[in-house]
Amino acid sequence: MKNLANLAKQFITQLNKTINVSNASKPDKCYYKEVLDNIRKLKPYFAFDEVSITNCIESSNIKIDKKNILALIYENEIKAIIGKYCQSYKILKIAQKKIECNHQINKFYCEVTNDVFIVNNLETFTEMLSTLDSYLIDVYDHSYRTYNSYVCFVVILTNKGNVYIIDCIKLRQAIIDKGLFTCNFKKVFTNIKNFTKLKVDFKNITCYSIADYYCDDNCILFKDFNITVNTYIDWRIENLHIYLKNFLSTKIINFYKNIKTELIDNPCSYIENDEDFLYLEKDTELYFKTFKEFFVSKYLLDDDKYLLKLIKVRETYARDNNESIYYVMTNGQLSIFAKLKLKNEKEIIKHKIILSSIVKQNLDQFLYSCT
Q: What GO cellular component is one of the record's annotations (predicted)?
């Protein structure tokens, strides 16, 4: 690249000199021939550089699984894991039931961690249930480009020290029939976000507690590659690769190490009634109030009408276009709009905010107005 830049600079300098000399009279054919000759001389350098850049990019897209999985790796960190042939599944709807549950689980202890199992068939699932008593649970859903997200995998750490990675798409009916998330088993959710994900999809969640702990540390894996909580993964990928298996099991074990000594019987004070906190009931005032509290506490925003307006408008356009609310406008973008109270497109350009096509088409609805 450096050599190419120097050659280009020399060529342009010489070209400028030639043009300046020729200003007094009309350039002759020799002038144009000289320009073309210089361009031809530079072409091989451009071609070489294009090949170098292409090779660099291709070397970053390392194939993890030759069948359908790709990983984008930069500086030994896996930035994204995607499938070549991800599908949109037809997800079985589940009816809400009125279930009374007064059970409590205050602590979760497990033996020394043993094996990691991928549960993607009925036989393995039934075998897992026969050994299950209580468990710690982490949840992974597909919510990148759809309004009503659905759970793809749950990862549980049992009191016997086993880690199970369960394919919730393949085993959805079996999970319902066997009551994995009901009072048949006591469970601890790693945080409120994962609880609400599962509550939306499976509705009837009982006999649980919420640790409300967030794991933001890197999960270091073998072969010098890291996967972090910020790595983008499309969870619709079938057949989990060893990298993902390692990531999921390491993460839930890290969760356990951080919460095992904490008392968790009063986890989240603002969930007074489970039935009120359904993401399927996204227009409820409690839903918007909870989102507003999140923005006020995390981004230190003013608790005002404009913040609530942004949350509701984002929700409306996400629902109408069947898109993720985060695709319409990320939390970071929403916080900037709320904090700076942007009034026009010039202010958006000034702060270098890249908007989604949906926000661009309906920008007036997102801008701040004093009225």
A: nuclear exosome (RNase complex)
